[in-house]
Amino acid sequence: VLEEKIVTDAAIFVGAYDPARGGFYNQLTDRLLRVPQYRSRFRGLVEHMLDTTITRPQANMLLQAALRCATPEIVGDSQKRAGNGEYQARLTEILDYLDARLAFVRGLPK
Fold it and tell me: Per residue of the chain (110 residues), what is the pLDDT tens digit?
């Protein structure tokens, strides 16, 4: 996890065969997403989630709710990777990632 690069421009059709990625792919997912009606329906569901569920205000609300419970443990954890002074910056990174990921997915060709 410490070496994992987190990107905002990863494919939304995870599991489908992509010759550029090679390697493992999910054969059932690949077969389903090759059917234009299923691919379109999946894309429509993703767009619906972006518009109704995965919004910055919603994500911020969920993040703040989680932090109300976790902050005392996070602040007191002597083995965490970031210091308490970096705490807010890491929270901002989460929301910035969400903004960039949403922009990428919304910008994909229909």
Answer: 566 778 888 888 888 998 887 778 999 999 999 999 999 999 999 999 988 888 889 988 998 999 899 989 988 998 888 788 887 888 888 889 999 999 999 998 87
Burial string for 57-66 (b: 16+ CB within 10 Å, else e) reads eebeeeeeee
- Contact of 109 with 47, CB cutoff 8 Å: no
**What pTM does this model have?**
0.75
Distance CA 110, CA 101 (A): 16
Structure tokens, 26: 């999910």
* Other residues' Cβ atoms within 10 Å of the Cβ of residue 105: 19
Tokens found for residue 71:
């902050």
Q: Output DSSP code: residue 6.
A: P
Identify the residue whose tokens are 């954890």: 77
